[in-house]
Amino acid sequence: MILMLLFFLIVIFNTTKLEILHVSHGRNLDNIANMLYTEKIENSSQRGDIYSSDGEALAINVPTYDMYAIVDKDYKDLLGKPDYVMDPDKTEKDLLGVLNLTNDENAKKIFHEQLNKTDVKQVEFSTYGKSLSVDQKNAIDKKNLPGIKFNSHVERRYPFNDFASYILGYSVLDDENKNVVGKMGVEKMMDGFLKGQDFSSSLKVDHNKIPLKQQQ
Fold first, then answer.
1. In terms of Cα–Cα distance, which of 141, 169, 168 is closest to 65?
2. CA torsion sign, 128 to 133 to 134 to 135?
3. Residue 161: what pLDDT?
4. Is the distance from CB of 98 to CB of 136 less than 8 angstroms?
5. CA–CA separation, 125 vs 67, rounded Å?
6. Predicted pLDDT at 1
7. Residues ≥6 apart with Cβ < 8 Å to 67
8. Cα–chain-centroid distance for residue 100?
9. What pLDDT does 7 receive?
10. Considering Cα of 13, then 19, then 21, then 26, what sign does the dihedral take?
11. What percent of the chain has pLDDT over 70?
């Protein structure tokens, strides 16, 4: 009888211990583990393209880049290595060459003045460094120029320029919400449909934040 009572006490103790481990300080450990090993991904919608009835693209989104340069000599990358414009003259020459601005005196003046500034941390290059194409960015990247950086964004382009512009209308970037908004024609009429909707998704990851393979 005593042995049976002792057995039941051990079972009750272990069950209680497991329950205490399962809920620590009022927090469910399953929920904590789920938070640690779940990566939330925010997905921004991209404005839809517009095509003609025969499949011709009339309004499309094009990735573009705005270039800037770090001129602060104390700036370092994530590995602690210096990452600023160390050779202004070489950087100027390479950038002007890639952008086909070697014979543009105004561009040469702007690039030279900006790259040699010492009283600021970073500089831009007026319109010469704005809305660069993917090919231009890739060509600059191949030069491996320290301190040259890019901000990416999407621009709305109309391949046929003014053709049917009164029907297509146009869209602009809303500075307040950072969204492209239709202002006239189809762009405005179908704005709600074209702009889509942002959404989020979750992904199971390991302790190194590497996505786990989907189970078959």
1. 141
2. negative
3. 80
4. yes
5. 8
6. 53
7. 95, 124, 125, 129, 130, 132, 137, 140, 148, 149, 150
8. 28
9. 40
10. negative
11. 68
d(CA 162, CA 169): 10
The arithmetic mean of pLDDT across residues 116-140, rounded, is 95
Residue 62 one-letter amino acid: V
| Residue bearing tokens 């040259």 | 148
Contact criterion met (CB below 8 Å) for 211 and 39: yes
Two structure tokens written together for 23: 């809920």
Show the 3-state SS of the chain.
CHHHHHHHHHHHHHHHHHHHHHEECCEEHHHHHHHHCEEEEEECCCCCCEECCCCCEEEEEEEEEEEEEECCCCCECCCCCECCCCCHHHHHHHHHHHCCCCCCHHHHHHHHHHHCCCCCCEEECHHHHCCECHHHHHHHHCCCCCCEEEEEEEEEECCCCCCCHHHHCCEEEECCCCEEEECCHHHHHCHHHHCCCCEEEEEEECCCCCECCCCC
Tokens representing 207?
A: 């302790």
Position 90, amino acid: K
pLDDT at 194 over 70: yes
